[in-house]
Amino acid sequence: xxxxxxxxxxxxxxxxxxxxxxxxxxxxxxxxxxxxxxxxxxxxxxxxxxxxxxxxxxxxxxxxxxxxxxxxxxxxxxxxxxxxxxxxxxxxxxxxxxxxxxxxxxxxxxxxxxxxxxxxxxxxxxxxxxxxxxxxxxxxxxxxxxxxxxxxxxxxxxxxxxxxxxxxxxxxxxxxxxxxxxxxxxxxxxxxxxxxxxxxxxxxxxxxxxxxxxxxxxxxxxxxxxxxxxxxxxxxxxxxxxxxxxxxxxxxxxxxxxxxxxxxxxxxxxxxxxxxxxxxxxxxxxxxxxxxxxxxxxxxxxxxxxxxxxxxxxxxxxxxxxxxxxxxxxxxxxxxxxxxxxxxxxxxxxxxxxxxxxxxxxxxxxx
Length: 367
What we know:
Layout: E1 27-32, E2 37-42, H1 46-49, E3 55-59, E4 61-63, E5 67-72, E6 75-84, E7 89-95, E8 105-109, E9 112-119, E10 125-131, H2 134-141, E11 167-170, H3 182-191, E12 194-200, H4 204-207, E13 223-227, H5 229-240, E14 245-248, H6 250-259, E15 269-273, E16 288-292, H7 299-309, H8 327-333, H9 339-352, E17 363-366
Parallel strand pairs: 1-17, 3-12, 3-14, 4-11, 14-16
Antiparallel strand pairs: 1-2, 5-6, 6-7, 7-10, 8-9, 9-10, 12-13, 13-15, 16-17
């Protein structure tokens, strides 16, 4: 598969620059894989669109103020923390790159300084921070990192957090969760829909651009995740009883698929994942997906294209008779349309219908 197969044109005015005041008022495009149908809704309708026995799985990671901007010599410099290592060292993205060579350093203030220890083959800098309390320094001096396509500064850091974010560690938000409000959670609870929480600290594995034309050669970066024994036990029980598992966001997908056996049973785990999902992947655990509209040529667009293909055990009515989507219906309805085609068709429709794209944009529900 080629990188160019996952490209599409997006007019800049379709990129959302700010979140809606009421997040659950965003639009929701629903893709029915069984019949190849696309319908339009508002996000607050999601509880009514879900199967009444569904279980939603959320990523509760919280974004840290990972961007440091400072005066260095005659100009400004920037460090974006990407991933903690050990002994005060972090993998970092930097600007301007030529100044950040091994041995270069700078004193940020009397209580905090840094020095470049190494440069990785990917061009990341390994930077050691020497601060009495680096976490406190970040909270007082760091800025909320937002994607480069968001041109307006985020003045309230909570705008770039989900309302259920709890465990600090991400340098980008799991944005599919932005649409959920307390009103949405109350509606889910009233309908008896379950909610579970996992953690994946978002880093380069999620947002780094794919640059290899052969996408299978993309060197995806590892990200830390955790699925607790209690959550794994409850989700296994739900799956065994025929309850549909709905992943909220691609990061939740990657946690569950990293922990699932070929027979579709979860094992509690924590550690690093390099799970890279693209068309042809057979999903082992999730049945439905809530997600956003993704950047062209991104690994996230490849993941949703794979899910739209329905190459999974979850799409088999013989193995999971209670599910809405069956391999037989999908094959009949979409014999001439791949998952990638289905997604790109939906994206073209979204552009024509005025949907808002990317982090602060509208949502998609793939049944």
